[in-house]
# Entry
Amino acid sequence: MHKYTYPCPLRWADADAYGHINNSMYLRYMEEARTRMFREVLAAGEAGLQNAFVVSRAAIDFRSPLHYREAPVDVHVRVTQSRAVSFELAYEIRDANLLYAEGTTMIAAYDLGSGRPRRLTEAERAFVARYTDS
# Structure
């Protein structure tokens, strides 16, 4: 299985009064990893101004509290399924010793001009295939 890994920095403002990372921040960490992963396929240019990806569903299972610290936490991303107009990403937010959360997002290819879903391009399908579970 190929996966993308993003070392996500923790920010002091991400923590609650007890020093735990707020649950809502896990969605942001997933977003940060996903947007960095997609940079290559969403490169600026004429098509980049028209084509986009949108999140149509998100889910998180919290496994262990994550306390604020200076060291980043790894966000691993992989594709678990792919269709003509959408694909699902699975995430693990973890370090070497502990799994903090697992999540998924359903990503839909979207045409910004028409405001409607669109089919994945050939380049996008190839990009998704690189990170798909085998």
